Q: What sequence folds into this?
């Protein structure tokens, strides 16, 4: 049975997004360094927690004495015990105050743990190789980090200040009931808590799948809506509004079904918990009432027993929610910390050194490379670009032109051969120092959703406004910016959609010029420009390349006629090399490409001439 493209795509996405999770123990261990940053705060927060629980457990004792002191003896009415009333109010206020102080003291620990862990994962993701990011969905990575950070906050707060204190409180209450009355009261309290916890965990485990299905359906619907809206123009081009609405509604229908099952299972959980609480309190009150009638317990003791039972079940009331959320938090943290287990395929060697130079010589020596064993892209490629030289790579799509730029930028390491700068193998140099030497104008320019000034200034974040404007003028961008009401502060929109393709490439050129690197890579740098704009920008590129070692990857041969040497690449091999004039004289592969493009240019110009 054949499967739809959508199901195949979703399986690929799921496989790409899969990250090996850490075990629970390893996940909790990963939190230890963040807690160790503030040992004093952690210790003080624990002291405040114990004090708050002590005040809470002491409340029923004060209430017992208060009720007993108000019970008439020998027909006489006693004076209202003001001290006990004040003590009761003070203990109740202390219980709340100490809890709030605990949250204030511990809050910084949790927030710092969130910040540090998110930063660590963020830095690690930037350190991973390009192949990892090409095979992952960015939205999935952002989701893993966001949920993992939230999971840290939840786990630290609830595990430390809900689960552990509740266990302490249960032990204290059971001990007081046993010590002050008899083992029957402690046994009822213990059995009721065990029954409540067991039932809550059992039902929560059962209903977790409904929660998961609802979340997955919600995420799927959200992903489809965002994807559809981002591709608004494509939807309109093909008139697929109904198709998109149907896909969205299918996901929402699944969400509705899963949410309904989740709601019914939650009602079952609440009813079962209430039955256990009501049965336990009734049994305890029956036992206490019998003891009061038989004068083995005072009226105040009856009230205290009831207060203890109510106090015992208040924190347990949220057990189902807390248990489910702790499991979710652990899962989210496992995914986030699991990202730290991803290893980059391109690493600096232990003996790698930094290279600092203002003049660079580039050489490829018998370089072979493939993105997979079955897909060989380059096969024994050798060439050299002298200091300040300009070399162009031309050829058909898929010949391996852009792969050469990726190897020089060290996004990948070659399978065989060497890539060198000033005679030094890139494997012996730090990646950061190599990339500081190289400026890139890519074919597909990606802009941040910020201002034009910000996007140009990204080439050198410490650049002044005057330097940014100078780079814009060199890229012939100043005339366009002058026409904008907000000038350099104009927002370019998400992915730069508010500016044309040509303007985006001018911004990319200005950004590279601002970086002022000794090596310049122009990867189809004028592909989005019309003929007039291309002629203007070529002057700027030629001026920029005069004092730089330049690698030009081009489809339009008209942009590389001034190169010192032109290489023709075909199926990963260099089939021709030489200057523009020399290659034309050979009347071979390059000459055929030149003639074909010349005819296309003449045809385009003829179409532009009105009849």
A:
């Amino acid at each position: 049975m054949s499967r739809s493209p959508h199901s195949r795509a979703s399986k690929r996405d799921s496989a790409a997004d899969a990250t090996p999770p850490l075990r629970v123990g390893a996940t909790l261990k990963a939190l230890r360094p963040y807690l160790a940053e503030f040992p004093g705060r952690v210790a003080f927060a624990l002291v405040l927690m114990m004090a708050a629980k002590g005040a809470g457990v002491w409340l029923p004792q004060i209430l017992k004495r208060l009720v007993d002191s108000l019970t008439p003896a020998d027909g006489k009415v006693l004076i209202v015990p003001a001290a006990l009333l004040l003590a009761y109010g003070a203990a109740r206020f202390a219980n709340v105050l100490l809890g709030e102080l605990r949250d204030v003291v511990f809050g910084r620990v949790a927030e710092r743990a969130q910040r540090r862990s998110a930063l660590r994962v963020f830095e690690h993701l930037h350190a991973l190789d390009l192949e990892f990011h090409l095979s992952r969905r960015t939205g999935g990575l952002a989701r893993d980090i966001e949920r993992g950070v939230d999971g840290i906050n939840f786990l630290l707060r609830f595990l430390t200040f809900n689960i552990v204190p509740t266990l302490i409180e249960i032990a204290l209450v059971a001990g007081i009931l046993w010590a002050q009355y008899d083992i029957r009261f402690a046994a009822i309290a213990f059995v009721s808590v065990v029954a409540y916890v067991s039932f809550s965990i059992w039902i929560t485990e059962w209903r977790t799948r409904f929660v998961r299905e609802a979340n997955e359906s919600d995420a799927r619907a959200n992903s489809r809506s965002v994807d559809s809206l981002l591709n608004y123009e494509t939807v309109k081009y093909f008139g697929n509004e109904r198709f998109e609405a149907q896909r969205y509604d299918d996901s929402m229908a699944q969400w509705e079904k899963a949410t309904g099952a989740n709601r019914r299972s939650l009602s079952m959980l609440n009813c079962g918990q209430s039955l256990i609480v009501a049965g336990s309190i009734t049994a305890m009150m029956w036992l206490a009432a019998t003891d009061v009638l038989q004068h083995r317990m005072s009226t105040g003791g009856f009230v205290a027993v009831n207060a203890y039972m109510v106090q015992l079940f208040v924190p347990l009331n949220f057990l189902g929610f807390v248990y489910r959320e702790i499991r979710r938090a652990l899962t989210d943290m496992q995914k986030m910390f699991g990202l730290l287990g991803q290893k980059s395929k391109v690493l600096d060697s232990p003996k790698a050194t930094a290279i600092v130079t203002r003049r660079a010589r580039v050489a490829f020596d018998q370089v072979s490379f493939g993105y997979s064993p079955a897909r060989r892209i380059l096969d024994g490629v050798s060439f050299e670009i002298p200091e300040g030289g300009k070399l162009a790579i031309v050829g058909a799509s898929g010949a391996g032109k852009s792969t050469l730029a990726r190897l020089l930028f060290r996004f990948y390491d070659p399978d065989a051969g060497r890539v060198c700068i000033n005679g030094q193998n890139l494997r012996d140099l730090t990646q950061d120092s190599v990339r500081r030497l190289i400026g890139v104008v890519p074919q597909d320019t990606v802009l941040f959703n910020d201002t034009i000034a910000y996007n140009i200034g990204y080439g050198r974040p410490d650049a002044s406004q005057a330097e940014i404007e100078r780079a814009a003028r060199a890229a012939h961008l100043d005339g366009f910016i002058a026409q904008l009401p907000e000038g350099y502060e104009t927002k370019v929109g998400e992915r730069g959609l508010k500016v044309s393709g040509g303007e985006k490439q001018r911004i990319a050129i200005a950004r590279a010029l601002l970086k002022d690197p000794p090596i310049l890579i122009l990867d189809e740098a004028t592909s989005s420009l019309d003929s007039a704009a291309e002629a203007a920008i070529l002057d700027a590129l030629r001026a920029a390349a005069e004092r730089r070692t330049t690698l030009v990857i081009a489809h339009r041969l008209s942009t590389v006629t001034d190169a010192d040497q032109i290489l023709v690449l075909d199926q990963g091999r260099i089939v021709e090399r030489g200057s523009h004039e020399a290659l034309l004289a050979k009347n071979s592969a390059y000459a055929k490409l030149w003639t074909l493009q010349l005819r296309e240019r003449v045809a385009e110009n003829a179409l532009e001439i009105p009849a």
User: Anything to note?
Assistant: The chain is about 65% helix and 10% strand. The beta strands are 362-372, 375-385, 390-395, 416-421, 424-425, 438-441, 519-523, 549-553, 565-570, 573-578.
